[in-house]
Amino acid sequence: MPSTRHGSFDTQNLLIGCAAGGSGDRTDSAAPIVATLIAHGQPSVLIFENLAERTLALAQLARRANPGKGYDPLLEAQLRPVLADCLKNGITIVSNFGAANPRGAADHIHRLAAELGLAPPRVAVVEGDDLSSEAGSAKLRSVLPKQFADQPIVSANVYQGAFEIAEALQAGAQIVVTGRVVDSALALGPAIAHFGWGREDWNQLAGATMAGHLLECGAQVTGGYFADPGFKEVPDLANVGYPIVEIMPDGSCVVGKAAQTGGMVNELTVKEQLLYEIHDPQAYLTPDVTVDLSDATVREIAKDRVCVKGVTGKPRPPTLKALVFYEGGWLGEGEISYAGPNAEPRARLAMDVVRQRMGGDISLRFDLIGVVSILGDSSGEMLSRHPPGLAQDVRLRVAGRHLEETEIDRLLREVYSLWLCGPAGGGGVRTAKRQRLSNISCLLPRATVPAHYSFYEAHA
User: Fold this and answer.
1) What burial letters (b/e) apply to 153-187, b meaning 16+ CB within 10 Å?
2) What string of DSSP letters covers 271-330?
3) pLDDT of residue 4
4) CATH architecture of 327-438
5) What is the pLDDT of residues 231-269, one digit of tens each?
6) Torsion, CA 101, CA 105, CA 110, CA 116, rounded to 10
7) What are the beta bridge partners of residue 445?
8) Which residues contact 104 (CB under 8 A, 6 or more apart)?
């Protein structure tokens, strides 16, 4: 990262833009960020936050089916438009789009650079999160609850921290690919490398961790998840800009967004995201620091510019969280629509038909989209309590899970047969099935699961 040095530490502020808040996010968000970073001319980083428990499980399944896959499938769509500009202008790229296969992602980046006629970039891979090996499984079985300890482990990943990312950047990496790291580490790692913070600079680490937390969900902090027509208006939401934070040497930050984009950043959008998924504002646990928001201040200093100060830190926890995946059988989903007079009673009758024909050997969930479908009603209690109404546009969704694929196939045939076997007027049948990985989390002593980085060279 280009920088201005004063003594042994860099005192110039660091800009970090986030172009994805999850796997499957928009792929045109990076270009406005990169243009803004270039225009500012400061040391800059572009991050993509692409992982969640669900997406990591999907990546593990993809790697099982094809050992060359398992990294984020949108990697190329995200990087192709901006890779050349980032490398030319010294903008570092850091992302967890390595998912279940960071080396596969690094290999793809080298292929993409070659296609674009670029010199091979210095790509570092951070590893140590994958506990799918026999040795890793042995570590897990010592801490898993007994009812899970005997389950065949398909894969497991531990949430690593930011210092290995920082070390890779300090060693000259232009791109850092990780697997499972805590989301905020994607921003904290570059900040550590840039400012030279130590492992016990708790307040600085905490401040930059929360800067990463503000970034990690992409457009949520720039108005996306804030928008609620008539209550919380957000301008030009269709072109919402993605966030950029400016991190200061003391760990405080200013939150903004890409230039010439929609959305907005104000005290309310920042406060909502600051508290998002925070289990304890006085002790938010991360691999690198325990964060205390008790004395944090959030203040709007200009249009689309909000300063966050006063975040403090305490020593990191002695353990790291691991997410363990094991075989979860199969999931099947079927849908059919009913419309017009008496549509809802017909949809309810169809639901009863499927339930009776499937019997009690399969776990089922029924939703009437247009009546009750969004809230967590896997038991069906809410639907049973909801009085039958006169909705005239209802779509019945049936979901089932079972260890045996044949039972899921039977369920999907039952949904399909509603078309002809009644009740009347059903249409628009759609069915799908997929393998499931179930998961459980546990804690491991951090010393038993060290992370490390290495440079990945392009293959001839």
Assistant:
1) bbbbbbbbbbbbbbbbbeeebbbbbbbbbbbbbbb
2) HHHHTTT-S-TT-EE-SS-EEE-TT-EEEEEETTEEEEE--EEEPPPSEEEEEEEEEEEE
3) 36
4) 2-Layer Sandwich (3.30)
5) 999 999 999 999 999 999 999 999 999 999 999 999 999
6) 160
7) 319
8) 63, 68, 69, 70, 71, 98
